[in-house]
Each structure stands twice: as structure tokens, then as C-alpha cells.
Specification:
The chain has helices at 27-57, 76-89, 97-112, 116-121, 123-139, 151-158, 160-173, 177-185, 187-190, 192-201, 205-220, 224-228, 231-240, 259-263, 286-290, 320-340, 350-356; strands at residues 246-249, 297-305, 313-317. With 368 residues, the protein is mainly α.
Length: 368
């Protein structure tokens, strides 16, 4: 899928002196704190989930911990299926309900704050970002990083994630409410989270080779997985087209240094745009952090007319702290609402888990 048309303006040929920022940029420090917090949260959830699974694998013996429903954030297909069922029937599925609320929260973040889910809270996005930064440190002397394919190949490769997204949307979109409920009631559907864990615990040779290739690719190409293959990111990118918040450039304050474009992980021509409307923009604010001129580049709402004669438009920039607060508010709001309405935990009798989890590997997709 091609990137949407980007709004362009002519660069000012006159060399201008920048108005330096009065304070250092804090966007990346704040974003990295949010990223670290969500990585820690996911590690904690993963450890607790592993202990919970091991308890049932041992036949109910040993140290028992409650099941962390947050693990369902790693079940985006279940979240998509339950969301469709909710809109068709008005009922919240009793199986993996947290997946739906987390899915809705992530979509809401992309709707209001561009594609910030990918660059602020997604642990896969955080790992991907760490890998290309590590690759740049390791191979800077031997390779000119990042290594982007030529444009004629890069655009079709970016379309792969939309092909994958289209496949999942087609499969879920053709299922009726009864079919969705029946799938979730199968042994596979009931313990889809355990099947996901076992995929990594009992990884085969082919899967291991693919992961190694993805790691190497991510060290050489910025956000390799996110840029070319992630269907979840593709969905968030499409939703983000409706976001009122965008990276916006003030041509009068811009000094045409090009630092913003060089800093952009998505390789967007930020220095030649009035605003970034691309589905590839993740609102990471790397370009804002690289800009040396005050107010030349901002993550902002659409400007509005000003009554001041000297200023026709009033820009409404968002601070990185405001973006972080918005993301956390939407995330915690969804979790607390699900708790308050008693739709957070999957309520399956322990005896059923005792029967299913030790035999998880025997259940094929969608059936016995």
C-alpha cells in the first residue's frame, strides 16, 4: 500500500539564523521512560503468566499465582475478534475480554495521538528500536547505516504488512457472531495465550532461523519488522490518518538544515513538509528532538486563527509530557473500566485449565 500523499511546500532558499531553544529537548527522555515502564510491565506479566502456566502443568501442585489478564494484550487477533463480536451483539466475550479492552485502548491511542502506540508503548517496537541503535554502534565504521532498499523496492516491501493485515481482517470480517463465539470456545481459543507461550518455549529450528534473520535485519534497517511486516502496526497506521495530532513544521522558523529528516526512523522528508500525514509516522518525536530551531517543528494539533495582527495562526503544540499522560490515561482508563465492569478476567474453572494446559500442544488451530 502506498504512503498517502504528503503536503509539500517550497524550501526557503535564504539561509536563516536559528532562534535557539530556551530549554533542552526532553521528548526522547520522556519517551524512553514510558517505553521502559511498559517493558518492565510486560516482563512482570510474562513472569507471572509463566508461573501460572507451570502450576497447571504440574497438575495443580506448587506455588499458585493468579492469572495476569494483561497477557491478553499479546493476543491482538483475539482482541479483534472480540471487538467485532461486541459490535455485532453488544456483549463482551467471556473468553479473553481483556484482549478487547486493550485492543480498543491501543486503537484509541492511534486515533488521538498518531501512531504513538508503536514508538511509545509497544515492547516489540522498543526492542526493534534498540536493535537498530545497537547496529549503528557496532557497524558504523564498516557499514553506512541504516541500509534502506531503493525506493522502487522499499514501497512494495512496506506493503507486505498491509497484505498480512488484509488477510486477518478478511478472515475475522467473514466470521459471524456465532462463529466467533464458537472459535473462542474451542480448546485452542480457550488457551490461545498458553499456545503463544509454548511457541517461544518449544521453538522449532525454522522459527528460530526466522527470528535470527529478523534480529539481524533490525540491526541493519531501522525498525525492520515494524516497517515491513507488522500487521498490527499497519492497522495503527491506518487509524492514525484520522488523528488530529501531527508533526507540523513552521517554514518561517525552519532553517532548512535537514537534521529532522536525517533523524526520522521512517526516512520521511520532514524538512520538506508542512505536516506529516504519512502512515509511517509514529510520533516518536525524534525529528523534533533533532531540530535546533525553536518552534520550527512540533507535535501539535491543527493551528487555529489568531486575533493578533502579527500572528495569523496560533499553533497548539503538545509537550512530550502531555503525550505521555494521554497514552497512560487511555491505557489505564481501559484497564480500570474493564475491572469496574467485571470484564477483565477470563473466568474458566480451574479444573478446565488442569485438563487443557498440560495437553496444550495437542490442540490444533481452532479445534481439538
Amino acid at each position: 500500500m502506498a504512503t498517502p500523499v504528503l503536503e509539500r511546500i517550497e524550501s526557503n532558499p535564504v539561509k536563516k539564523k536559528p532562534i535557539r531553544r530556551p530549554m533542552p529537548d526532553r521528548s526522547q527522555r520522556i519517551r524512553h521512560i514510558v517505553q521502559a515502564a511498559f517493558v518492565v510491565l510486560n516482563v512482570w506479566i510474562g513472569a507471572q503468566f509463566y508461573l501460572w502456566v507451570r502450576f497447571f502443568e504440574r497438575g495443580g501442585h506448587g506455588f499458585a499465582v493468579p492469572r495476569p489478564a494483561g497477557v491478553e494484550g499479546w493476543l491482538p487477533i483475539a482482541g479483534l475478534m472480540n471487538t467485532k463480536e461486541f459490535f455485532l451483539t453488544g456483549r463482551v466475550s467471556a473468553i479473553h475480554p481483556a484482549a478487547m479492552f486493550l485492543f480498543m485502548a491501543f486503537v484509541a491511542i492511534s486515533l488521538l495521538a498518531k501512531k504513538a502506540f508503536c514508538s511509545w508503548i509497544c515492547p516489540v517496537g522498543t526492542i526493534s528500536e534498540s536493535l537498530w541503535k545497537l547496529g549503528r554502534k557496532l557497524f558504523r565504521r564498516s557499514l553506512h547505516l541504516p541500509l534502506y532498499p531503493p525506493r522502487w523496492l522499499d514501497i512494495p516491501l512496506r506493503g507486505l504488512k498491509y497484505v498480512l493485515l488484509g488477510f486477518f481482517l478478511f478472515v475475522v470480517g467473514t466470521m459471524s457472531a456465532d462463529a466467533l463465539q464458537s472459535f473462542m470456545a474451542t480448546p485452542y481459543g480457550l488457551i490461545a495465550d498458553v499456545k503463544m507461550l509454548n511457541f517461544f518455549r518449544n521453538m522449532g529450528e525454522t522459527a528460530a532461523i526466522i527470528i535470527v534473520l529478523l534480529v539481524v535485519g533490525s540491526m541493519l534497517v531501522e525498525n525492520f519488522w515494524c516497517r515491513y511486516l507488522c500487521p498490527y502496526g499497519a492497522l495503527m497506521g491506518l487509524v492514525s490518518l484520522l488523528s488530529p495530532i501531527k508533526i507540523r513544521r513552521d517554514a518561517d522558523a525552519c532553517i532548512d538544515c535537514g537534521k529532522c529528516a536525517r533523524a526520522c526512523p521512517a526516512a520521511l522528508p520532514v524538512d520538506r513538509l508542512v505536516q506529516i500525514r504519512s502512515v509511517e509516522c509514529t510520533a516518536c518525536m525524534e525529528c523534533v528532538a533533532a531540530c535546533p530551531s525553536a518552534n520550527a517543528l512540533q507535535l501539535a494539533l491543527p493551528p487555529r486563527r489568531s486575533n493578533a495582527p502579527a500572528q495569523r495562526w496560533l499553533r497548539r503544540a503538545l509537550s512530550p509530557l502531555a503525550v505521555a499522560c494521554l497514552i497512560v490515561y487511555l491505557f489505564l482508563g481501559a484497564v480500570l473500566f474493564a475491572h469496574a465492569t467485571n470484564h477483565w478476567q477470563t473466568r474458566i474453572p480451574s479444573q478446565m485449565y488442569l485438563d487443557l494446559i498440560p495437553n496444550a500442544d495437542s490442540f490444533a488451530h481452532g479445534g481439538m
